[in-house]
Amino acid sequence: MLKLGDDTLGDLPITVTRPTYDRAALRPGIVHVGLGNFHRAHQAWYLHRLMQQGLAQDWAIIGAGVRAPDAAMRDRLAAQDYLTTLIELDPDGMSVEVTGAMIDFLPVAEDNAPLIACMSDPAIRIVALTVTEGGYYGGPDGAFDLDHPDITHDIAHPATPRTVFGAIVAALSARRAAGAQPFTVQSCDNLQGNGDITRAAVLTLAQQTDAALADWIASNGAFPNSMVDCIVPATGPQELALVQRLGIDDAAPVTHENFRQWVIEDSFCAGRPPWEAVGATLTDDVHAFEAMKIRMLNAGHQVLANAGELLGIETISGCMAHADIAALFQKVQQSEIAPHVTAVPGMTPDAYITLISRRFANPEIHDTTRRVAFDGLSRHRGFIHPILRDALVGDTPIKGLALVEALWARMCAGTREDGSEIAPNDPEWDRLNTLAQTARTDPKAWLTLYDDLGDHAPFADAFGAALSQIWKEGTGAAIRAYLADT
């Protein structure tokens, strides 16, 4: 096998697309925190494609992380000059591309000193984030959680913060003191209003230690909203074996589908790459695109994943191949989600259901139900609960959504229907598992996770009935009963 690196790019198989630009001449402009598979298959790919056209040569990416496990990714990528092999998987064929928009990865330190120093450099004009939905320190009411131990630490020790938001505030403070302009903070996570949420987090934290700094950031900074979309499985033995069969020794390859979408609010305080030249949509109104994707695709993933996990179905494509789960997905989408989604230019809700159904059913994408179900508390709060709120206000059907929530509660009890164990799969697993066990006989225990939603009798009653039926008759019977209910 050919060890991936700058000095071996010319030796890659002719079927593998590789950088045509001079990577040694690239200059950094972006720090990206959270160098997981999604970022490398999505945002880094768009930048790579610009560089292939001779553009954005001063916008190269410096990677960063704020968690100890990020150091392992840094080591893997550093050993191959921060290159990534992207493998596009589609029933019609496979294509392979090596991307090189990333040129460095900062040391991961508990006090985030290397990250703060790098972001303080005026050459850095964008700080981007993929830190997962649960990484924004949102409390039960959605507001930034000032009582979280990590945040109380950052307030008490602003020069040595633990969190990415503390590091951002410290770097912006240094830039203000040096007379430099702020950078744009660009969230690329699946949160509706992700830029607004990021702005609130940064400003709320800054206000705790320096009100004048918070005012300066509010007046001069930028936090664009965005919508990101590409199905990117986690890398495991199957993906590593695939890249090796291609003759490439890549310790961190990425597989992905043949669909990408990036809709970005055109609001930047220090410039930006011309992403629209490679297919991104720049707009003043992201929210309609964002709502369609989050409510239909991300919520749709949760419709599938918990049912699949309970029935021992390993992948999302396997769920779509299961007649009952696929029918559940279609009915919930059409009758309970689509009524709360508006069309966007070029796409109606019905057409979007067709699009995501095809994407989810792609058998070449080994996207596990476990990955999709991970961090369910954050994902259900972000993706499902807002639809329920709108449905209750509009008095539209909710039985399918209540069933989806009941399947999640049953999954958090920690066993599949065949008796096998479901390993902990949520940062709040111990709490969820305890509530799920209690909810087996007292469904109202689970509804404590829903704030005022749990007080609405139509939802509480439908949830309780669904959960009781799942425990008594099984997942399949509960799904079929919903499908038969006209």
Automatic annotation (TrEMBL):
Q: A Pfam family for this UniProt protein?
A: Mannitol_dh
Q: Is-annotated flag, keyword Cell membrane?
A: no
One Gene Ontology MF term: oxidoreductase activity, acting on the CH-OH group of donors, NAD or NADP as acceptor
- Segments forming domain Mannitol dehydrogenase N-terminal: 29-276
UniProt KW Nucleus keyword: no
Per the UniProt record, which residue ranges are transmembrane? none
* UniProt keywords, alphabetically: Oxidoreductase
Mannitol dehydrogenase C-terminal domain residues are 285-471
InterPro entries (alphabetical): 6-PGluconate_DH-like_C_sf, 6PGD_dom2, Mannitol_DH, Mannitol_DH/Oxidoreductase, Mannitol_DH_C, Mannitol_DH_N, NAD(P)-bd_dom_sf
What's the name of the protein? Mannitol dehydrogenase family protein
